[in-house]
Amino acid sequence: MAQFTESFQIQYRHLCSENSRDCNPFILNMLAKVDEDIKNGQEEEITLHIGGNNRLVPVQRITGEDFWILSKLLRNQSWINGVDVRYNLISDVGAYCAAKLLQKQPIITYLNLMFNDIGPDGGEIIANALHKNKTLKYLRMTGNKIENKGGMIFASMLQVNTSLEKLDVGDCDLGLQSLIAFATVLTQNRKIKGINLNRPILYGEQEESTVHIGQMLKQNHVLIELHLCKHDMKNFGIQQLCNALYLNCSLRYLDVSCNKITRDGMVYLADVLKRNTTLEVIDLSFNRIENTGANYLSETLTSHNRSLKALSVVSNKIEGEGLVALARSMKTNSVLTRIYIWGNKFNEATCVAYSDLIRSGRLLSNNTDVEPYTVDQRVYLAEVSNGLKRHYYWTPTYRDSYKESSSAGYALVPVGKHL
Questions:
Q1: pLDDT for 62-92, tens place per residue?
Q2: Sheet holding 310-312, edge to edge
Q3: No. of helices (H) and no. of strands (E), the chain
């Protein structure tokens, strides 16, 4: 790295003065921490964290004008390669500045713009900047309402961009047209390893998006991580994905949480798990697979599958019989090391079964979301804050947000740094 001469704090004050702007005290505070890291000899790449949801310091959320100054500061420097400005107010003005930063700062590899009031026009500006950018690897647009228009332009960008490895456009109000466009482009794109398409705005009941995504999975052998949360997916949709997974040999993390999949959909998933040897993490949280669906999965995990490492069945209307069956499968299947079951109906047999797994060391306490305790010689289970993607929307106050127990899915199936 280049020799560090003038602190980022001083540079920021000078830029604010030159442009007749008031300094944002929150930005100054965060830049002071970067200066300290550099002076302490930190050689690894530095990410500038200026999240508006920070609870440890007083926060004055960043506006588009603040981000304009910040982007000028970040140009032509060789220390900061990641910028995290989640939960601020940069809007489309800040999106323009972010686009300029991507064009003029060649070392930025990580950019987090989640929940910043960026609309379709701002999304278009950023997507167009990525046509020529050759360094950015991970972009989070989560929660910015770029809508179908912005989604279409991002999909078009993936036909040209050669560096982006992970893209998060979850909660962006994408429409069916843009979902189909993403699926079509990903049949040819050979760089994207992870994509988040959570919570699109869909009006039909025919689940067309899953048909196209299934076709994409049959042809794409690069994609590692796929999030399809809140797609209003039913058994027909999971069937389309499972039909594709017989042929897919790359996908390792499948998230179909918060859908309408029932026990009948587990027939397809249990069958594909008998043959698919690449899937390592499956998130079925907040569906309705019930005892029957859990039994289908446990039978496959007991007798056939030896690749799945983590399974979440949180809040799936499963009762004691199904939960005990899943616990029993772990005694035979040594590869499945993480299971998350909170939100189902526990009986005494369930509590005893998972308590035995934890006490024997077969299931480590950090690898599940329950912890046994005893009252009047009877075992109960309490919830523990572990999960597959606990820190998707927020970061903890006093501990590492990438801690394996709290974001096990990302730890087991890493696409790259920050993912």
A1: 999 999 999 999 987 888 999 999 999 999 9
A2: 46-49, 80-84, 110-112, 138-140, 166-168, 194-196, 225-227, 253-255, 281-283, 310-312, 338-340
A3: 14, 13
